[in-house]
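In the design runs reported in the main text, the only information available to the sequence generator was the tokenized backbone. The following block is the verbatim input for one such run; it is reproduced so that readers can re-run the procedure and compare outputs position by position.
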């Protein structure tokens, strides 16, 4: 299970996409979020970062053990 975030200006964009593909091919539920013009590590609290954090929380709640 995993949720990955990257941006179109992230130096590691290709690596992140390859990791996501490998996780999915291995049967792992994974999400990939790509932010337009975002650098590696996000944008220091920009609305896009806040939206990703909300998506991550939803992903974790769906997959957490209760």
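Verbatim output:
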């Amino acid at each position: 299970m995993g949720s990955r975030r990257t941006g179109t200006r992230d130096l590691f964009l290709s690596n992140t996409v390859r990791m996501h593909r490998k996780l999915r091919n291995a049967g792992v539920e994974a999400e990939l979020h790509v932010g337009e013009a975002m650098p590696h590590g996000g944008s220091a609290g920009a609305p896009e970062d806040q939206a990703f954090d909300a998506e991550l929380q939803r992903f974790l709640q769906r997959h957490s053990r209760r």
